[in-house]
Amino acid sequence: xxxxxxxxxxxxxxxxxxxxxxxxxxxxxxxxxxxxxxxxxxxxxxxxxxxxxxxxxxxxxxxxxxxxxxxxxxxxxxxxxxxxxxxxxxxxxxxxxxxxxxxxxxxxxxxxxxxxxxxxxxxxxxxxxxxxxxxxxxxxxxxxxxxxxxxxxxxxxxxxxxxxxxxxxxxxxxxxxxxxxxxxxxxxxxxxxxxxxxxxxxxxxxxxxxxxxxxxxxxxxxxxxxxxxxxxxxxxxxxxxxxxxxxxxxxxxxxxxxxxxxxxxxxxxxxxxxxxxxxxxxxxxxxxxxxxxxxxxxxxxxxxxxxxx
Length: 309
Fold this sequence. Notes:
By secondary structure, this protein is α/β, with parallel strands linked by helices.
């Protein structure tokens, strides 16, 4: 960075909105999509970034024009890395101040439906014995970068999610594997198979998750590679609804073993195929840039203990 850039950083206030714009454009590869994410017009995003570029004396992006993807310049790469760290600290500060305004400590945990039902109840029971006065709020999360951003920005203290991408802002601890199995009715022809395999689903009616879930998309791609072509008749985002649909005889399903082993209907059973089709592991994630409060560390310990039980 030039002497001129350093002097400008010292004498001028760097607009946090501009830093957020840089990060959003880099992540989305588009000024328009970054505007959609941040709630600004494309021209506002362009203006924020152009102002910061002029202040620092560097261009941050190669702008190909048309529908071409916007990519970072070497200077932009440096700004992007530092901006993400700075914004994480600012968001964490806001979260800490919000927390300080409450007399009772509250831990915010992002969980999938599976973790909420299969791991958290026992973990919270053990946690309450040690910290009876600490509240815990469970929020439903999906997956991907947005989930990790919620941790890095201090919006949640912990997240339980599957196979997060590496992120220097996040500590991700593997806690439990959740391989895919076949969920079916006990009286189905599949349940009587002596050689369980995902190939049994070829041509069969199947109830599936919606394709917004990465692992459902990966699962269907794996089926295609193996020449397996199930007939997907229903899709849902709801764990309970999926099980009820299978119990009603409307199709079979591929779900995680953690859920299948505690299926809500006695008419349901599950098969473990002889071949793994898509590896899946749950991770416990928290910010690498903020020290864990004692209650949060205790909850981390309780979750890990329950997951390994």
